[in-house]
UniProtKB/TrEMBL annotation:
Keyword DNA repair: no
Main location: cytoplasm
Keyword Iron in annotation: yes
Residues the entry annotates as binding Fe(2+): 212, 293
Entry protein name: Ferrochelatase
Role according to the record: Catalyzes the ferrous insertion into protoporphyrin IX.
Amino acid sequence: MLQNMLPEPAYRHGSIDKIGVLLVNLGTPDAPDAKSLRVYLKQFLSEPRIIEFPRWLWWFILHGIILTIRPAKSAEKYAQIWLPEGSPLKIHTERQTEQVAALLKEQLGIPLVVEYAMIIGTPSIAEQLQHMKAQGCSRILVLSLFPQYAASSSGCVLESVFTELSKMRNIPDIRTVKHYHDHPDYIAALAQNIRDYWGKYGKPNKLIISFHGVPRKTLEKGDPYYCECQKTGRLLATALALTDDQYQICFQSRFGFSKWLSPYTAEVIKELGQQQTKRIDVVCPGFVADCLETLEEIAIEGKEIFIGAGGGEFHYIPSLNEHPEWIKTLGNIIQTHLSGWMEQQALEEESTQSRARALALGAEK
Ligand SMILES: C=CC1=C(C)c2cc3[nH]c(cc4nc(cc5[nH]c(cc1n2)c(C)c5CCC(=O)O)C(CCC(=O)O)=C4C)c(C)c3C=C
Ligand SMILES: [Fe+2]
Ligand SMILES: [Fe+2]
């Protein structure tokens, strides 16, 4: 449909094309207030890959109930974790992007354009793809920052990317990373982060490995998310040499009344509290940046549940954030997926330079 194509920057002969890397995370509200939360939740909960429910019925539930109650309640939660510089999710994603860009520049010696985008809110995937094209990127690698693939997380990233590409006249070469749940470097970074924590604060009686939940129905419909979470959890426990009774995998953040993946983190924590467990540590390997779901739901609410039920010490182990092993891992995953492109880029640069030299010689004569 030609008339729907987006305007294109003018084609320039002989310009050196660049390679771009786009890191994508979920997105976060602009401020911890009810107005910003309303905008954020409306966009989030209108996404068909997040809410698989008949559209017309959902429209009434969303506008009639959820968007009248939830924004104020969620804003109060966000206010408890908001940093002076802004939302933790955004701050960590920005820092990860800057740090991996610096690492790749040092390792590869050729300039890459490294940006981040969000599924919900800003900067959007659409605007960042356009921005990268405007900077001359003719090859773009999109890395979904969710380690485990779910239709509602990495699936959303891929759909947004392909929708935006479908509107372009001059479509860049594109590569995508949909998951890396069992990548040895990711598992090693998670294990190192935990060992660093235990080195400072000692070890718990049990390690709770908690992932964001999704509706149970999605597993029955073929979503690999549950199995990928189990595999990450198992590999992590093996890397830490934990026995079966020293760890438990569970799922948090249930939304609504339908069955979600289980066991539910809140119930597991409560039971361990009731059994008067001396100490539990919770880690959330599905979130590579700390956010509302880790800092509020686990570190604040989870702690209240455990202590309230009679448990002893509760520790939340921070996400990978800017851990050096994680930045190295990101760099390694990116480099693996750029294979072939780097060599092509070097050849193109060489031929553009020799053409420029030949033209300059011709002009001298
Ligand atoms: C309503 C259904 C939801 C599905 C399905 C879902 C999947 C899903 N989400 C993440 C990661 C994050 N979710 C975050 C917040 C959040 N999640 C939902 C609902 C669903 N998520 C809501 C309504 C919210 C908003 C907060 C609230 O009102 O409770 C966040 C935190 C964002 C932040 O700003 O800090 C993350 C990250 C994954 C990985 C996932 C599927 C696997
Ligand atoms: Fe979520
Ligand atoms: Fe939550």
